[in-house]
Amino acid sequence: MEKANRPAVRNVCVFCGSMAGDCPEYARSAQELGRRLAESGRTLIFGGGQVGLMGQLADAALAADGEVIGVIPQSLATKELLHPGATKLHVVSGMHERKAIMDHLADAVIALPGGFGTLDELFESITWSQLGFHRKPIGLLNTLGYFNPLVGMIEHAMAKGFVSPGHGSLFFVEDVVERMLQRLEENGQRCR
Question: Given 3-state DSSP classes, what are the helix, strand and coil percentages for the chain, each rounded to the nearest 5?
Fold first, then answer.
């Protein structure tokens, strides 16, 4: 990719489930995102696993000749969950180090459907943005409306005075991969 055409957001951290969920559309969305990141010259930074949506995402990026960087705690790597095809793999001591390295490597964050780990990583990233530790764009890829209840809870917290109304703009929600990448790029340009 020529330098003039390089995206402002080059390294994208994706938080997503280590399980596949109850609908094939979640995997299709993860695969499309992985493929589109690779095709657009962006590096995927992910949790380092080969299972669930994580594995689908990484496999698709690798199949499209993308660069894939995994960050996985030793305790999970020893359970043979680590992705053997990652371009680069960081095996770390624990979850705190994992999140810190992922944040350090990333220009932007996308959350796909997932469970407690995904939500933990997403909210830590949003909180760090709220506190001014970073200005990275954060997007929720809302496949099949997965994040609708979460967005509703955040709106409820704003209405009840626990989240400042301006902090609702710390993240954005899209349900189409191509639009998600456009929004990341638009927000990434403003954050530089």
Answer: 50, 15, 30
